Amino acid sequence: MYRGDLVTRKSYGEDVVFEIIDINRQNVFLSGVEYRLVADSPITDLNKVVDYRLTKDYMRSHSKVEQTQKMIQRYRREQQEANLHTMIIRSEQDDEAELKSYFEVPGKVLHLDGDSRYLTKSLELYNKLRVPVEGHYFREKDMPEQLYELLPKVKPDILVITGHDSMIKNRRNRDDYSLDSYKNSRNFAKAVKIAREYEKNKDTLMIVAGACQSHFEALLQAGANFASSPQRILIHALDPVQIASKISYTSIKDTVNMLDVISYTISGIKGIGGIESRGSYRIGLPNIKNNENNH
């Protein structure tokens, strides 16, 4: 086996597909293809994946991602139709074409990711969904300090703080409600607190925080709007993106439908939870570009 090969672990029932990222004499180091999970394993416990597209991991994840993309795109169309209908009712103009010249201002996302591969995947999905985004790769422990500079510079409407996390195994007297029992939840919580010092209003800056098995309660207490993981389960690499994208295209006049937004994720309510929050999508008039094209 070599770096870049896709494998599963026999001892875990081959439940998750990994990519080999490094090998030494004793262990093989792995990173989940779909889930935000890093692990190591003896080479004897690994099976090589022949065709990734035939794995349950691929079929489950990609069918849900495609479904979610269609749901978000359909929601955007419905939002556009509702905006146009509202403006026609409220306007005394008879020219519907003039009213259709409005422009959209979806919420801007600042996405910090502790894994460069997942960051690339996330940015690809944001772009497909036409969500304005600026993304950066930082180690989880460096995220709090980096936010001091990035927040006033980027001025995001939505902040995503994610990467890798896990509950620390084989620790005596482990307390599942202590941040000491988690690999990176403390770093995520620090980053959320710094963001909340920058902007206290939870409807002005919405924060999506956490990764696999993160300390859900601590992240919400620190000031996150949405966080993982209520049941300490693995979350899909793109779940934070799905949440942020739905917020980005929910009108500032509306609150984000909690069950609706969580249904957009692959992990569901066991993996993602949150508090009632307003959207960050706005419309404006007139569309200058359209007016310029008419002259």
Automatic annotation (TrEMBL):
It comes from the Bacteria. InterPro entries: Peptidase_U57 (IPR008764). Pfam families: Peptidase_U57. NCBIfam families: spore_yabG. This is Sporulation peptidase YabG. It comes from Chengkuizengella marina. The gene is yabG.
